[in-house]
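Progress report, Aim 2. The chain analyzed during this reporting quarter is listed below.
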Amino acid sequence: MSILITGGAGFIGAALAERLNSEGHDVRVLDSLSTQVHGEDPTMSPTLQLAQKNAEVVRGSVTTRSDLEEALGGVEVVVHLAAETGTGQSMYQIERYTHTNVGGTALLLDVLRNTHHDVRKVIVASSRSVYGEGKYHAEGLGDVYPGPRKDEDLRRGHYDPTICDYDGQLTLRATDEESRIRPSSIYAITKHTQEQLVMTACASMGISAVALRFQNVYGPGQSPNNPYTGILSIFSKQILTGERINIFEDGKESRDFVFIDDVVEAASRTIDASDADGQVVNVGSGVATSILEVVSSLFSAFGKKVPVDITGVYRLGDIRHNYADISKLRRLLGSQPKVDFSSGSKLFADWVTTQQLASNQYLHSLEELRARHLLR
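Predicted C-alpha cells for the chain:
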C-alpha cells in the first residue's frame, strides 16, 4: 500500500517508516523538520536520515493546505503522528500547540472531505496523557479517578492523589480505554481533540479510523538533546556528562515506558487489523515503572553513576501514576510487548553513547517553567 506518515521524520515516524518499507509498502513522509526536534541542521538528524533511507520525504507542514494536498496524492493510509510534544511546554506555548495539533488535524480532515483522494484509513497517534491521573480502587467505592492534585498538597509533600470525602488508601489500577478522560495539560487536551476529530470526521466520510494512545515511548532514535522528549533522554545526557540528576517530587511517581519496537509493531499491525477500526487502543508495556527505578536502570545500563538529588520540586499539571491496561492491544491487534524496561534501557543507553551531545537545554526548559510559575 501507499502510506503517508505525517511527522514521519521524528522518533516514532522514522522507525515506523523503516518497518513499513521492509514490509513492501510505499512510504511517504511529511515533516516540518522543526529545529526543536532535528536541530539547527536537519540534515544531521539521525531520524531524518533513517526516514530518507526508507521513504520519500516531503518537507512541509500539516498546517499548510497545499503541503497536505501534495503529500496525500495516491495515498491509501495516513498515519498521523505530526504534533508538538511536551506537557510542560504546552502550558505556556498554548497557541503553538493548539495550532499544530488541533489545527493541523482539522486541516488534514478538511482536505480529505473536500478533495479527491484514495485514503481509506487514518491512524492517529494519541497519548496516555488524555487520562490525566490513572485509575485507582477505593475500598467501598470501587474504581475512582482522582482529579488534578492541589498545589497546597504538593507544597506540603503530599504527592499521592486524593478524592473528596474519602480518607482511605487508593490502590493503583491499570488504566483501560473506558477510563475517565481528565486531561491535565494543554498537550493532553490537544491529543484528545485530535482523537475526537479523526474518529468523528472519518466515520462521516466512510474512512476507517483508529486512535492509538501511546504511553511513554523510548528507545534508540530518541533525541538526547531535545529537553521535551522525556526523562530517559534527559537523565542519560546527565549521566554521560557527569551532571547531578534532580528528581521531582519523591521519585516514586510512575509511568508506563514502552519500547519503540513494540510501538512500531502495534502501529504496523493496525494498518491491516480491521477489528481495530473505529476503536481507541492503549499502546504500552502494561507495567508501572517509578522514576527512581528509571535512574537505577540507567546507571546499570551505562555502568556509571552520578549524584542524585530528590528535590521535592513539582510541576503543575503533572500526574502521579498511570500505566496501561493493554488487553485491548492484545485482543484487537494481536500485539504483545516484547522488550522489558531493563533490556530496553540498555539498548537505549548503547545508542545514546554513539550520539553527539549538544549543549544542555534541559536547565533552560526548567527556567522557562519557573518563570511562568509552573515549576514549584
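The domain at 83-371 is CATH 3.40.50.720 (Rossmann fold). The first strand starts at residue 2 and ends at 6. These observations will guide the mutagenesis work planned for the next reporting period.
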